[in-house]
């Protein structure tokens, strides 16, 4: 009976604690340096940036979302929510009609001034690199009324990234990667969140930080850089041999590249809580490339010549 009474008391205390958290005031500082204070954690949230949508859900608050931008598509449950446009064409009237407690937006959104003029509580957050991602997760967790969840999620992500890095073949570490994000071509430089993730995996980058996070490159730059490895979407990778001078790139002729399907590609180029999954995706490809390199060496050692392209 004593054990039953103790269990009942603990359950009541847990419920009281959860209720206190749900009704506690929250204060966060957004990317503008503004302090946003709410009497209670928001229960109706609109997110106008995919990375913020994913972060809210990763912090176990997906059920509080009442609307998102048109590009938010993960997790699957957000597909059923009202879609309210994008950075340039937010559907203000539809958004206001949803009566959100708070609206999460990127700093580049054109809707900020109008929303605030209409009395909406706007929180500006935008992860652009790994440090930003940690900061955004911490601030969102505070906003949601569960401050410990942010650091806990970040630590779990770091553990997974470290495990992915441990799988990268030793012979590939330090090799320089050309990571194309768009076919103009735009590339992920060392200072981008993609570049930082590659560095965490022990890889180099042909695009120095001085050029910015996602610079538009002269195609000749890539030819002269002679990357050891190329990473891109499958569609972009298929087009590369047709670019002037690119057909001779050893990373293409020797099949030392990673071409990602649309689903995996989206994970790779979207900052937020799936960055650890992105590290696993890249590590998977590097493991395959390392295995293929080993097979080529074995064939040459046996006097059979290079292995055929994969």
What is the name of the CATH topology of the largest domain?
Rossmann fold
Helix count equals 12
- Overall mean pLDDT stands at 91
Strand content: 5-15%
The helix-and-strand class reads: alpha/beta
Radius of gyration: 23 Å
Return the CATH class of the largest domain. Alpha Beta
Number of domains: 2
Percent range of helical residues: 40-55%
- Listing every helix as H and every strand as E from the N terminus to the C terminus, the arrangement reads HEEEHEHEHEHHEEHEHEHHEHH
From the N-terminal CA to the C-terminal CA, the straight-line distance is: 68 Å
Main beta-sheet annotation: 5 strands, mixed
- Fourth-level CATH superfamily of the largest domain: Nitrogenase molybdenum iron protein domain
Low-confidence sequence ranges: 4-21
Label the overall shape.
Answer: elongated
CATH architecture of the largest domain: 3-Layer(aba) Sandwich
Number of strands: 11
Account of the protein in words:
This protein has about 300 residues and is α/β, with parallel strands linked by helices. It has two domains: about 25-145, Rossmann fold (3-Layer(aba) Sandwich), CATH 3.40.50; about 170-300, Nitrogenase molybdenum iron protein domain (Rossmann fold, 3-Layer(aba) Sandwich), CATH 3.40.50.1980. Helices cover about 45% and strands about 15% of the residues. The chain contains twelve helices and eleven strands. The strands form three sheets. Strands 7, 8, 9, 10 and 11 form a five-stranded mixed sheet that branches. A four-stranded parallel sheet has the order 4-3-5-6. It has a two-stranded antiparallel ribbon with strand order 1-2. Helix 5 (about 130-145) runs antiparallel to helix 6 (about 150-165) and helix 6 (about 150-165) runs parallel beside helix 12 (about 275-300). Residues about 5-20 have low confidence and may be disordered.
